[in-house]
Amino acid sequence: MNLLFKCLVKVLxxxxxxxxxxxAGFSSELVIYPAQxxxxxxxxxxxxxxxxxxxxxxxxxxxAPPTASTPPPQQQSSGSSVVKxxxxxxxxxxxxxxxxxxxxSRSAGAGAAAxxxxxxxxxxxxxxxxxxxxxxxxxxxxQRYTELRNSYNxxxxxxxxxxxxxxx
Length: 168
Known about the structure:
The chain has helices at 2-27, 40-58, 81-100, 104-162; strands spanning 32-33, 166-167. It is an all-alpha fold. It has one domain (2-167). It is rod-shaped, with a radius of gyration of 29 Å. The two termini are 49 Å apart. The model is unreliable at 20-27 (pLDDT under 50).
């Protein structure tokens, strides 16, 4: 199960970032109007020059595939939480049984059951925390991409406006 999760993280997360980036890119398409009667050839030349300049100014290249700035949160193996909890509970049960002169096996069984239950609850809490960390990481990456894209768009627009175009 852990191997499957790692494979999914490696395949799905970059795809998710790419999808979020595509959505951000579609919503921020610019309309450029040659306000001073520039030709199509001049428009293409100016767009390329402004692309180069805006990329250098913002540190963002809209032509490059989006990448994560940080690795995703580390996934911790939680498969043995129940077993570890049961083992700890059995040990505590045997100790309590020895102190109270109860049957060690009955006390160990009760302790193992209680420890297994606690281990299962711990595993669910850990899985929930991991999901929350993953979601937060995805949101941070999407926000970072949007900020960089907006910075690029501002620089690109400023460059084109400086060359006599109307940009909306």
